[in-house]
Description:
Elements: H1 2-7, E1 17-21, H2 25-31, E2 37-42, E3 55-56, E4 69-75, H3 84-94, E5 95-104, E6 115-116, H4 123-130, E7 137-138, H5 143-150, E8 153-157, H6 159-162, E9 174-178
Parallel strand pairs: 1-2, 1-4, 2-3, 4-5
Antiparallel strand pairs: 5-9, 6-7, 8-9
Amino acid sequence: MYTFLVDYLGVFKKQFSILHIAPEKVILKRLTGHVYDYVTGDIDLSRYSKSDNIRQTDLLNTGFSDGRFDLIICNHVLEHIVDEQRALQEIKRILKVGGSAILQVPISPLLQITEEDPKIITNKDRLEHFGQHDHVRLYGIDYEDRLKKIGFKLQSFSLFEKYPNFGLNPEEKLYLASKSDD
């Protein structure tokens, strides 16, 4: 992800405003203080130290102005959010026209349609049905359609092919969703 941010998106070469949701510590450390405008947020601040400077952020209502960010990084977050469509609408709202969002989720290539059931609420049942106790769905290959339904234009990348020596999952695609003015 970090190499993609630097090599493909050029985050150090342009004046990017970036929102990073639930930031991975290694990327947080490399971008903090080195990117023009780098904002980090998470709904659960207990995973961070005060020095990480994470803002409490709910993806259903971020409090940011329309078109605030050039880039939003949301890596393995949406599978935890019950109202995924509302979260995606909020991401689109705060993204600038022409901006992009990295929207990674775990996807089962065996599922045509994403599995979700709002009646599955216990940790045990979520683990059994969605593969992790705090997941509320298991995405299928319809994930791209879910993003397009919101109005995003999509590009997908195989980071395994782009960076074959990094030991990445050959099945995982990186999704870059863009907001257009139409």
